[in-house]
Design a protein that fits this description.
The complex is a heterodimer of chains A (712) and B (65). Helix content of chain A is 42%, strand content 13%. The radius of gyration of chain A is 24 Å and the shape is globular. Chain B has one domain: Beta-grasp domain (Ubiquitin-like (UB roll), Roll), CATH 3.10.20. The chains are: A alpha+beta (712), B alpha+beta (65).
């Protein structure tokens, strides 16, 4: 274990405010360039408009950056917040943090949510949000100590780079014998050498005496963190109880918390068994419905997929409570104990691996044509400890593998590596290279969008085919669901503000499998309501899994089962009970709508956020190649005949691919029109003046941005 | 005997999830059924034989991700 040597750079003493109705009512700001620490008050207006969490983050980000700001500029602000409900220990899933910054891969606004104890500890220490600007050459640790009421900026030379090690040494150092009082935010060596770095947020697993990690994975926020010169941010706090948030109506809070907690306890064993297997249950189900990405999203099914299924991981997961926040009855953060990596710096040593979850299994397994569950566990471990986003890592390697198999790149480019699908050794070696900043791994670590440019400019690869098969939109790699047969999910990915991540809209099942939204208008309505509802969790410091991963036994008898309205009602009561704001379910949607539209305008300010930025690669819409078409010929022929009235007799596959593509691309554009209209946006995808006025976000600076884009 | 929720059904050789759903008379479009640790998706409901003395859980699966 490395000995921690820290040197004081700056200390800031403060008086910790009492939490009132879920808010600390002040925020913390650190400028690393001049080691300045300051506190700003939170106004009632700020709470009314932005609520908290992502809303506060985005407000700070808006004020920090100019339209010309790049991700690596000092003014880029890395913001972390909980939310007014965050830190409630009795309501399932109430420990989330949300992180925002300008992303290295998209150049625009990124947000990523994460479990672990940091967000609640930050708030209880006296700050609703943390904003970090500036850069330093000194490896820096920020300590937010709510117990001693001091914020310290420390030089942390000699600290380990790996996320697991640094989290452990800092927890032991600052915990003063009480490791549960500490949460560490860190990244890893991969973040420095790639653009797809993630952040690791720790929580202390008292029963196993282990420091556990959760990830804010998407969009290279770990890369921003490392680029600023940060080694870690540490929050220190003490006991958390139901009244730490000082809720207005403790009795109602306890009542709804008990209802939701008990329902999960009752229903989870009958439904998804998430407290036993997390999201691993999805693997074989997705495979059965042709939705599990394999071989860079070429196909949605593979005969070997059951090798990565729930039963396998159930046996691998260490038994015990796995809640990433206190008191969560869903408790889905499972892990593998005493895993022994076969490669890399931890080769031959026993390690604890947090995961894998579905995304990592699909991204680092099936999508690479690898069906070895232990390989996935090893990829998972090294992604975390190197500070790499497992989704972007998997999708980026999958793209490189397909380019290799297509002959667009070869061994001369890969440093002699065989990148055929299914090559486990090469996938792991790429990961180690990303961490070291060496070889072809350094290229893959730039993400899909930049790989396309590098392959074209430096290796002479064909641009057109790479645009079709490179699974990124807005510069962000796709998460691990096949959207070819679900128009609503194509919109869920393509119209998501930050890029194709399913946390904004996951509509595959309700659209494709259940057919709950057969009409175009219903799909547009879903692409209005669901992203807004899901946004609300990020405003409040909540996890969305308890909302719809386990549902009431009689949910199917309700009018709109996909919305799980009983839970929406409980969340409404929860919000009122903590904050004292009397709200109805529709009010929660309006809260989100304000922040959602504000984020869209912020994207616009950064040079994005228009119709053309909502494009997706054709592989997300349909079969790119003859091989893909032929593999599902019956389906595609039937659609051409029955849906579009096309006579397929006598037509070759290449011709049918072309016809289907034209039709599907037109349909996607029609969907954009319908969704923009429903959202109150122009045909160019920009919020109208009426929309921002109706929502009360018609600040002069917002109007200026709209005016610059022709909306006045 | 096979149990689904609070209903019990007489077991017979070769009975499938689809057969039981028909007997149950529940029109809801369940995506997945689980028997013990075994997950069965709707496309396979008519092929999946249900063992005697088992409990079938019908999973709505509207979530994910």
């Amino acid at each position: 274990m490395a000995e921690v040597k820290v040197r004081e750079i700056q200390t800031f003493n403060y008086e910790r405010p009492a939490i009132q109705k879920g808010y600390a009512n002040q925020t913390l700001h650190v400028d690393l360039a001049d080691s300045k620490i300051s506190v700003k008050p939170v106004s009632e207006k700020m709470k009314e408009i932005f609520v908290g969490g992502k809303g506060f983050d985005l407000w700070f980000l808006w004020n920090a950056v100019k339209g010309s700001t790049r991700w690596s500029d000092p003014e880029n602000a890395l913001c972390i917040a909980s939310g007014p409900l965050g830190g409630t220990p009795i309501y399932p899933g109430s420990g989330k943090s949300i992180v925002t910054a300008i992303s290295p891969t998209t150049g625009s606004v990124m947000d990523s949510n994460v479990g672990g104890y940091f967000g609640p500890y930050l708030k209880f220490s006296g700050f609703d949000a943390l904003e970090i600007q500036g850069k330093t050459q000194v490896p820096t640790v920020i300590l937010i100590d709510g117990i001693s009421q001091r914020v310290r900026i420390l030089e942390g030379s000699g600290l380990p780079s790996d996320a697991h090690e640094i989290s452990e040494v800092l927890t032991n150092h600052f915990g003063q014998g009480r490791p549960r009082n500490i949460s560490v935010v860190s990244t890893g060596p991969g973040a420095k050498h790639t653009l797809i770095g993630c952040l690791n947020f720790s929580w202390y697993d008292a029963k196993r005496s282990k420091i556990r990690l959760k990830q804010a994975g998407r969009g290279g926020l770990g890369t921003v963190f490392a680029d600023k010169g940060l080694k870690a941010i540490v929050a220190r706090w003490d006991t958390v109880t139901t009244v730490t948030n000082n809720p207005v109506d403790e009795a109602t809070l306890k009542k709804v918390a008990r209802l939701h907690s008990q329902e999960i306890v009752d229903q989870d064993p009958k439904q998804n068994q998430m407290s036993l297997v997390g999201t691993a249950h999805l693997v074989t189900i997705m495979n059965d419905y042709d939705l599990l990405p394999t071989h860079n999203f070429r196909f949605g099914q593979h005969p070997q997929a059951p090798k990565l299924g729930m039963e396998v991981y159930r046996a691998l997961f260490d038994k015990g409570y796995d809640g990433c926040w206190m008191g969560c009855t869903l408790a889905c953060s499972h892990g593998v104990k005493d895993f022994v990596p076969a490669t890399g710096p931890q080769k031959g040593r026993k390690v604890f691996v947090d995961g894998p979850e579905y995304e990592t299994i699909a991204g680092c397994g099936s999508n690479l044509g690898i069906f070895d569950p232990l390989h996935v566990v090893e990829m998972n471990f090294y992604c975390d400890t190197y500070g790499l986003d497992a989704i972007s890592t998997g999708t980026s390697i999958a793209f490189a593998m397909e380019c290799f198999e297509m002959g667009l790149i070869n061994k001369a480019h890969t440093g002699g590596m065989d990148l055929s699908f299914g090559n486990r050794a090469s996938a792991l070696e790429l990961l180690h290279q990303m961490a070291r900043g060496e070889g072809f791994g350094r290229v893959v670590g730039q993400g899909v969008r930049r790989m396309k440019e590098i392959f074209r400019k430096e290796y002479g690869a064909d641009r057109v085919i790479m645009e079709d098969i490179g699974m990124e939109a807005k510069g962000l790699e796709f998460s691990e669901y096949m959207s070819k047969e679900s128009l609503a999910q194509q919109g869920g990915y393509g119209l998501a503000l930050k890029g194709p991540q399913h946390d904004e809209a996951w509509l595959i099942f309700v659209d494709m499998v259940h057919n709950f939204m057969p009409t175009f208008e219903q799909k547009a309505e879903a692409l209005h309501w669901f992203p807004l509802w899901r946004t609300w969790f990020g405003l409040c410091g909540l996890c969305k899994l308890p909302w719809n991963d386990i549902v009431p036994a009689d949910n199917k008898q309700t009018k709109e089962p996909a919305k799980v309205m009983r839970h929406v009602g409980w969340y409404t009561q929860y919000f009122s009970a903590v904050t004292g704001r009397k709200v109805e379910p529709a009010d929660l949607i309006t809260m989100s709508e304000r922040v959602y539209n504000f984020q869209r305008v912020l994207c616009l300010k950064m040079g994005f956020g228009r119709r053309e930025h909502d494009a997706i690669p054709y592989r997300a819409m349909g079969p790119v190649t003859v091989e893909e078409y032929e593999s599902r010929k019956e389906r595609y022929d039937k659609q051409l005949k029955e849906t579009y009235g096309i006579d397929v007799e006598g037509k070759g596959t290449a011709e049918k691919v072309k016809i289907l593509r034209k039709l599907r691309e037109e349909r996607y554009e029609q969907l954009k029109d319908a969704v923009y209209e429903r959202r109150g946006w122009t045909k160019a995808g920009i919020p109208t003046l009426d929309t921002v006025k109706r929502l009360g976000i018609d600040f002069p600076e917002v109007l200026d941005v709209l005016k610059a884009h022709g909306v006045a | 005997m096979v149990r689904i929720g609070n209903r019990e059904f007489a077991w017979r050789e070769g009975v499938t999830v689809a057969d039981l759903l028909k007997e149950l008379g529940d029109p809801y479009p369940y995506a997945v059924a689980r028997i013990g640790d075994r997950l069965i998706s709707r496309p396979d409901f008519d092929k999946a034989a249900v063992p005697n003395d088992s409990e079938v859980f019908l999973i709505p699966l509207i979530a994910g991700g």
